[in-house]
Design brief:
By secondary structure, the chain is of the alpha/beta class. It is 21% helix and 24% strand. Strands 11, 12, 13, 14, 15, 16, 17, 18, 19, 20, 21 and 22 form a twelve-stranded mixed β-sheet that branches. The protein has a five-stranded mixed β-sheet with strand order 3-9-10-1-5. Strands 4-2-6-7-8 form a five-stranded antiparallel β-sheet, with no helix packed on it.
Length: 473
């Protein structure tokens, strides 16, 4: 069932005026194998990319309608225009006027050649992404940002906790592995290049008793992330540092946790990190407070989910080392870490498929909290602590979209992501808003983004920074 009338939501800082609608017949039915059929059936939210036979301007439409409907920034308009004429599988080509520029968005299935929306003018000032929620006949329009360098547009005095940040869960777990272990479709470098700025990483010290060894194996729970040999934290950090070197406007927030079999300890992990990775003069930000963006451009911001070796508790004038995620509540729908620097939704025990909706409800509830955030710019207390909430904090809001149950195929990471990721795109496109806040999403930590080149979720999250940017002007 598809909604009868077209709704358009403008999530940009500029009024857009719908000027023309062209209608195209449904694409010819293609033959799929069983795997292909499953892929088609599970995807309700689709990118507004030109279909293969609808890309050319010469493609014949069966109806054209001239209109003039203005959608103001951060407003939604039910246009009164029928979303379809004869079939709910029809495709629309919409022409918008934006301050004298014409832009085209098509509501069609994705093609192999990625294209979000198409400016119909040379040297356009604006770039947009259109995401169409087909069952609701709802088009959300976002400002497009360069995924390699989207933080460049934000002011230095912005606290990183004020941002809408796409993240990934078990970020390097993209290799050949058991389905219950693998969490990502593409490499960490590809994630970074497409806008991801938060990595969740789990490591196992390989030689914990040897102070000269820096070997940290990348793991997921008790398992290595690859069936064909160990993958190492050193290679991951080298890749991250290379990306930041080429994109100095960006920062990467990294949550680190110790997992894996063996008798290693948190204290040993903290020693290895301090002595071999986050040394003085490195790209790591390890002060135990939420930084402003200008302080950490080109750097890795450490969130530690482990206890410290005794000597590290004396770092930073006795305040410790790294943003403190100790006491992270297990399997929680909502909790604040004892440090006060992190508010998290990390309910992961989806033991059966029917519990996926419960997880979605927890995700949406945390999004509602973040939408009301309105952090000031660049205010810092004399002792180095933030002048924020009642505890003097501007905490990071971290929202995990990941969940799994090792014992059931239907609740392995990829299966759950196939339901949760489109549901979250739907929520962000149609419902995410705040009464007084900046409509931030906080940090959304996802599984399986980039599968089949689908980066809708990441683009939605990055696009939600627009309201914050308007307040910075």
């Amino acid at each position: 069932m598809v909604a009868e009338y077209l709704t358009i939501r403008n999530l940009t800082s500029t009024p857009v005026v719908l000027k023309q609608i062209e209608r195209f017949s449904p694409q010819k039915v293609q033959k799929y194998d069983i795997k292909g059929v499953a892929k088609v059936l599970k995807k309700n939210v689709t990118r507004s990319e030109p279909a293969v036979d609808c890309t050319s301007q010469s493609t014949e439409y069966f109806d054209r309608q001239d209109v003039s409907i203005c959608i103001e920034p951060f407003e939604s308009v039910e246009t009164g225009i029928h979303a379809f004429d004869k079939s709910d599988k029809e495709r629309l080509r919409l022409i918008f006027d934006v301050e004298g520029e014409k832009h085209q968005i098509q509501t069609s299935e994705p093609s192999k050649d990625y294209e979000t929306s198409k400016p119909l003018a040379d040297n356009p000032r604006f770039q947009f992404t259109g995401i169409y929620v087909r069952p609701e006949s709802h088009l959300a329009i976002y400002s497009s940002a360069n995924p390699n360098a989207w933080m460049r547009e934000l002011k230095d005095e912005t606290y990183i906790s004020a941002l809408s940040i796409p993240g990934t869960h078990n970020s390097p777990a993209c290799h050949l592995a058991a389905p219950s272990v693998r969490c990502q479709a593409v490499s960490p470098r590809k994630q970074l290049e497409n806008g991801v700025r938060f990595f969740d990483v789990r490591v196992q010290p390989q030689f914990p008793d040897d102070p000269d060894k820096d070997n940290l194996i990348l793991v997921h729970g008790t398992f290595p992330i690859s069936l064909v040999g160990h993958k190492y934290f050193r290679d991951l950090t080298t890749e991250i540092e290379s990306f930041l070197d080429h994109n100095p406007s960006e920062t990467l927030i990294m949550s680190l946790k110790r997992e894996g079999p063996g008798s290693h300890t948190d204290a040993q992990l903290s020693r290895i990190l301090r002595d071999h990775y986050a040394r003085d003069g490195s790209l790591w930000y390890t002060e135990p407070r939420i930084p402003r963006l200008g302080e950490v451009r080109g750097k890795i911001v450490l969130i530690r989910r482990f206890e410290l070796e005794e000597r590290l508790t004396k770092e930073w004038d006795g305040r410790g080392w790294g943003i403190n995620g100790e006491g992270w509540a297990d399997n929680t729908p909502f909790a604040t870490c004892p440090s006060g620097d992190i508010c998290v939704q990390d309910f992961y025990a989806v033991l059966e498929k029917e519990k996926i909706q419960q997880k979605i409800d927890y995700i949406n509830a945390h999004l509602k909290r973040t939408a009301e955030l309105c952090y000031p710019f660049g205010v810092i207390g004399k002792d180095g602590a933030n002048d924020g909430d009642e505890n003097g904090k501007f905490p990071l809001y971290i929202n995990f979209l990941s969940a799994s149950n090792f014992w059931k195929i239907q609740t392995w990471p990829e299966k759950i992501a196939a339901s949760i990721n489109p549901a979250t795109v739907d929520y962000l496109c149609r419902r995410h808003r705040g009464e007084k806040g900046d409509w931030s999403t906080g940090i959304l930590v996802c599984d399986w983004v980039g599968l089949d080149r689908d980066w809708d979720l990441v683009r939605c999250v990055v696009g939600m920074n627009t309201r914050l940017m308007m307040r910075q002007r």
